[in-house]
């Protein structure tokens, strides 16, 4: 089983930056990609960014050019650098382990990001 622990959320003014971290432990070999999702109040959870085990990345259109996903394989940690934050980025951000075939997906507990105008 994989365990995911997020950190780095908080309150920031519009235009500011935050960096989220997600540390993975356990059955790391079962992970195909590590992804960041977010869920704002009253909205569905949406994919923000993801990075595969070999470093391919993808982003939601709404964050392209502002957010950067990266990973440190030695630390089994994925990061989400968020720049030029907007109030509409306010949400609970979740780390998600996208599994290889035959394994289960895993979600982190979430970390709240609040962007004030």
What's the helix and strand layout?
Layout: E1 2-7, E2 10-13, E3 18-26, E4 31-39, E5 46-52, E6 57-59, E7 67-72, E8 77-82, E9 91-99, E10 106-107, E11 111-116
Parallel strand pairs: 2-11
Antiparallel strand pairs: 1-3, 3-8, 4-5, 4-9, 5-6, 7-8, 9-10, 9-11
Would you kindly provide a written description of the structure presented here, covering whatever features stand out?
The chain contains no helices and 11 strands. The protein has 117 residues and is an all-beta fold. The termini are far apart. The strands form 2 sheets. Strands 2, 4, 5, 6, 9, 10 and 11 form a 7-stranded mixed beta sheet that branches. The chain has a 4-stranded antiparallel beta sheet with strand order 1-3-8-7, with no helix packed on it. The model has no long low-confidence stretch (mean pLDDT 95). It has strands at residues 2-7, 10-13, 18-26, 31-39, 46-52, 57-59, 67-72, 77-82, 91-99, 106-107, 111-116. It is globular and about 45 Å long. Helix content is 0%, strand content 57%.
Tell me, rounded to a whole number, the average pLDDT: 95
Oligomer: single chain
Low-confidence runs of at least 5 consecutive residues: none
Structural class: mainly beta
Q: Helicity level, as a percent range?
A: under 10%
Total helical elements: 0
Q: Outline, from the CA principal axes?
A: globular
Number of strands: 11
Please indicate the percent range of residues in DSSP E strands (runs of 2 or more): over 45%
- Largest sheet properties: 7 strands, mixed
Integer-rounded radius of gyration: 14 Å
Would you list the SSEs in sequence order as H and E?
Answer: EEEEEEEEEEE
Our measurement of the CA-to-CA distance between the termini, rounded to an integer number of angstroms, reads 40 Å
């Amino acid at each position: 089983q994989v365990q995911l622990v997020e950190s780095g959320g908080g309150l920031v003014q519009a235009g500011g930056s935050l960096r989220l971290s997600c540390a993975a432990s356990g059955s790391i070999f079962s992970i195909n990609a590590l992804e960041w999702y977010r869920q704002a109040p009253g909205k569905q959870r949406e994919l923000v960014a993801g990075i595969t085990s070999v470093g391919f990345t993808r982003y939601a259109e709404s964050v392209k050019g502002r957010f950067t996903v990266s990973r440190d394989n030695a630390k089994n940690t994925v990061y989400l650098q968020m720049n030029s934050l907007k109030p509409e980025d306010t949400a609970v951000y979740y780390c998600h382990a996208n599994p290889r075939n035959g394994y289960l997906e895993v979600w982190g507990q979430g970390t709240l990001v609040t962007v004030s105008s």
